[in-house]
Amino acid sequence: MKPFFTNSIAAFLGFTFWGAGMSKLYAGYQFIGWIGPRWLVERLAEFNLGLYAQFIAISQIVIGFMLLTTRFKLIGSIMLVPMLVNILMVTISQNWTGTPYVLAVLLLMNACLLWQYRDYFKPLVDETFAQVPQRTKSIRSLAGHAVWTAGLCLNLLSIAVSFSHLYSAFALAGIGVTLGILAFRVDRYSLPSKSNPPSQT
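Predicted structure:
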Protein backbone atom coordinates (compact mmCIF):
# COMPACT_ATOMS: atom_id res chain seq x y z
CA MET A 1 0.00 0.00 0.00
CA LYS A 2 1.42 3.33 -1.02
CA PRO A 3 2.22 5.97 1.65
CA PHE A 4 -0.59 8.22 0.40
CA PHE A 5 -3.24 5.58 1.04
CA THR A 6 -1.66 4.57 4.35
CA ASN A 7 -1.66 8.16 5.53
CA SER A 8 -5.21 8.65 4.22
CA ILE A 9 -6.48 5.71 6.26
CA ALA A 10 -4.60 6.96 9.32
CA ALA A 11 -5.97 10.49 8.89
CA PHE A 12 -9.54 9.25 8.45
CA LEU A 13 -9.39 7.03 11.53
CA GLY A 14 -7.67 9.82 13.41
CA PHE A 15 -10.32 12.38 12.50
CA THR A 16 -13.03 9.91 13.47
CA PHE A 17 -11.80 9.26 16.99
CA TRP A 18 -10.27 12.67 17.61
CA GLY A 19 -13.65 14.21 16.83
CA ALA A 20 -15.46 11.57 18.89
CA GLY A 21 -13.38 12.32 21.96
CA MET A 22 -13.53 16.09 21.59
CA SER A 23 -17.30 16.11 21.09
CA LYS A 24 -17.82 14.13 24.31
CA LEU A 25 -15.96 16.75 26.37
CA TYR A 26 -16.78 20.02 24.61
CA ALA A 27 -19.40 22.31 26.11
CA GLY A 28 -22.79 21.27 24.79
CA TYR A 29 -21.09 18.56 22.69
CA GLN A 30 -20.55 21.28 20.08
CA PHE A 31 -17.69 19.79 18.15
CA ILE A 32 -17.36 18.14 14.76
CA GLY A 33 -17.61 14.39 14.69
CA TRP A 34 -19.69 11.71 13.04
CA ILE A 35 -19.40 8.85 15.51
CA GLY A 36 -20.86 8.81 19.01
CA PRO A 37 -22.39 8.63 21.45
CA ARG A 38 -21.58 12.18 22.52
CA TRP A 39 -23.52 11.85 25.77
CA LEU A 40 -21.33 9.01 27.09
CA VAL A 41 -19.83 11.00 29.99
CA GLU A 42 -23.19 12.27 31.17
CA ARG A 43 -24.82 8.83 30.92
CA LEU A 44 -22.05 6.95 32.71
CA ALA A 45 -21.88 9.62 35.42
CA GLU A 46 -25.28 8.35 36.57
CA PHE A 47 -23.48 5.13 37.55
CA ASN A 48 -20.49 6.91 39.14
CA LEU A 49 -18.44 6.17 36.02
CA GLY A 50 -18.07 9.75 34.81
CA LEU A 51 -14.30 9.75 35.33
CA TYR A 52 -14.02 6.51 33.37
CA ALA A 53 -15.99 8.03 30.50
CA GLN A 54 -13.71 11.08 30.52
CA PHE A 55 -10.72 8.74 30.37
CA ILE A 56 -12.22 7.06 27.29
CA ALA A 57 -12.80 10.44 25.64
CA ILE A 58 -9.26 11.67 26.36
CA SER A 59 -7.85 8.37 25.08
CA GLN A 60 -9.83 8.85 21.87
CA ILE A 61 -8.41 12.36 21.51
CA VAL A 62 -4.80 11.25 22.03
CA ILE A 63 -5.06 8.20 19.77
CA GLY A 64 -6.98 10.18 17.16
CA PHE A 65 -4.40 12.98 17.22
CA MET A 66 -1.59 10.45 16.70
CA LEU A 67 -3.33 9.10 13.62
CA LEU A 68 -4.73 12.38 12.29
CA THR A 69 -1.31 14.03 12.21
CA THR A 70 0.24 10.70 11.01
CA ARG A 71 3.32 11.32 13.16
CA PHE A 72 2.74 8.33 15.42
CA LYS A 73 0.36 6.30 13.28
CA LEU A 74 1.88 2.93 14.23
CA ILE A 75 1.51 3.52 17.98
CA GLY A 76 -1.90 5.05 17.42
CA SER A 77 -3.14 2.13 15.33
CA ILE A 78 -1.93 -0.37 17.95
CA MET A 79 -3.67 1.55 20.73
CA LEU A 80 -6.82 1.80 18.63
CA VAL A 81 -7.29 -1.99 18.47
CA PRO A 82 -8.45 -2.59 22.09
CA MET A 83 -10.55 0.57 21.99
CA LEU A 84 -12.33 -0.50 18.80
CA VAL A 85 -12.89 -4.05 20.02
CA ASN A 86 -14.30 -2.84 23.35
CA ILE A 87 -16.62 -0.34 21.70
CA LEU A 88 -17.71 -3.04 19.23
CA MET A 89 -18.59 -5.41 22.07
CA VAL A 90 -20.58 -2.70 23.85
CA THR A 91 -22.59 -1.90 20.73
CA ILE A 92 -23.32 -5.58 20.13
CA SER A 93 -24.39 -6.15 23.75
CA GLN A 94 -26.65 -3.10 23.58
CA ASN A 95 -28.20 -4.25 20.30
CA TRP A 96 -27.37 -0.99 18.53
CA THR A 97 -28.63 -1.37 14.96
CA GLY A 98 -26.02 -0.67 12.31
CA THR A 99 -23.30 0.63 14.64
CA PRO A 100 -21.47 -2.72 14.97
CA TYR A 101 -21.11 -2.85 11.18
CA VAL A 102 -19.61 0.64 11.10
CA LEU A 103 -17.15 -0.29 13.83
CA ALA A 104 -16.29 -3.53 12.05
CA VAL A 105 -15.36 -1.50 8.96
CA LEU A 106 -13.21 0.85 11.07
CA LEU A 107 -11.54 -2.18 12.64
CA LEU A 108 -10.83 -3.57 9.17
CA MET A 109 -9.35 -0.24 8.08
CA ASN A 110 -7.12 -0.24 11.13
CA ALA A 111 -6.06 -3.82 10.34
CA CYS A 112 -5.04 -2.66 6.86
CA LEU A 113 -2.97 0.09 8.45
CA LEU A 114 -1.28 -2.36 10.84
CA TRP A 115 -0.57 -4.73 7.95
CA GLN A 116 1.81 -2.16 6.49
CA TYR A 117 3.96 -2.55 9.62
CA ARG A 118 3.66 -6.33 9.95
CA ASP A 119 7.45 -6.81 9.96
CA TYR A 120 7.61 -5.00 13.30
CA PHE A 121 5.39 -7.63 14.93
CA LYS A 122 7.50 -10.69 14.09
CA PRO A 123 9.54 -10.52 17.34
CA LEU A 124 6.28 -10.67 19.30
CA VAL A 125 5.52 -14.17 18.04
CA ASP A 126 9.08 -15.35 17.43
CA GLU A 127 11.57 -14.29 20.09
CA THR A 128 14.45 -15.69 18.01
CA PHE A 129 13.67 -13.30 15.18
CA ALA A 130 16.94 -11.49 14.57
CA GLN A 131 16.35 -9.51 11.39
CA VAL A 132 15.98 -5.75 11.46
CA PRO A 133 13.13 -4.38 9.29
CA GLN A 134 14.58 -2.77 6.19
CA ARG A 135 12.84 0.58 6.18
CA THR A 136 13.91 4.08 5.35
CA LYS A 137 14.67 5.83 8.62
CA SER A 138 12.32 8.73 9.26
CA ILE A 139 13.81 11.98 10.44
CA ARG A 140 12.50 13.00 13.83
CA SER A 141 13.76 15.76 16.09
CA LEU A 142 13.14 16.87 19.64
CA ALA A 143 11.90 20.20 18.29
CA GLY A 144 9.38 18.38 16.09
CA HIS A 145 8.21 16.28 19.02
CA ALA A 146 7.85 19.43 21.12
CA VAL A 147 5.75 21.15 18.44
CA TRP A 148 3.56 18.05 18.10
CA THR A 149 3.09 17.83 21.88
CA ALA A 150 2.21 21.52 22.01
CA GLY A 151 -0.47 20.89 19.39
CA LEU A 152 -1.95 18.05 21.43
CA CYS A 153 -1.93 20.21 24.57
CA LEU A 154 -3.76 23.00 22.73
CA ASN A 155 -6.47 20.53 21.78
CA LEU A 156 -6.91 19.47 25.39
CA LEU A 157 -6.83 23.10 26.53
CA SER A 158 -9.53 23.98 24.03
CA ILE A 159 -11.94 21.70 25.90
CA ALA A 160 -11.78 23.89 29.01
CA VAL A 161 -11.96 27.07 26.90
CA SER A 162 -15.12 25.79 25.16
CA PHE A 163 -17.13 26.35 28.34
CA SER A 164 -16.38 30.08 28.27
CA HIS A 165 -15.80 30.93 24.59
CA LEU A 166 -16.66 28.33 21.98
CA TYR A 167 -15.10 30.00 18.95
CA SER A 168 -11.80 30.57 20.75
CA ALA A 169 -11.83 26.89 21.62
CA PHE A 170 -12.34 25.97 17.95
CA ALA A 171 -9.40 28.21 17.04
CA LEU A 172 -7.16 26.55 19.63
CA ALA A 173 -8.12 23.10 18.37
CA GLY A 174 -7.44 24.12 14.77
CA ILE A 175 -4.05 25.61 15.67
CA GLY A 176 -3.24 22.46 17.62
CA VAL A 177 -3.94 20.17 14.67
CA THR A 178 -1.96 22.48 12.38
CA LEU A 179 1.03 22.32 14.73
CA GLY A 180 0.76 18.54 14.84
CA ILE A 181 0.92 18.34 11.06
CA LEU A 182 3.65 20.97 10.71
CA ALA A 183 5.88 19.06 13.15
CA PHE A 184 7.28 17.20 10.12
CA ARG A 185 8.43 20.49 8.63
CA VAL A 186 10.08 21.42 11.92
CA ASP A 187 12.00 18.13 11.74
CA ARG A 188 13.40 19.05 8.34
CA TYR A 189 14.54 22.46 9.52
CA SER A 190 15.94 21.14 12.80
CA LEU A 191 18.05 18.41 11.19
CA PRO A 192 19.20 19.85 7.85
CA SER A 193 22.44 17.87 7.82
CA LYS A 194 20.53 14.56 7.96
CA SER A 195 17.74 15.43 5.58
CA ASN A 196 20.05 17.17 3.06
CA PRO A 197 23.48 15.48 3.08
CA PRO A 198 26.30 17.43 1.40
CA SER A 199 26.89 16.53 -2.23
CA GLN A 200 30.10 14.85 -3.39
CA THR A 201 32.21 17.08 -5.67
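Summary: The radius of gyration is 19 Å.
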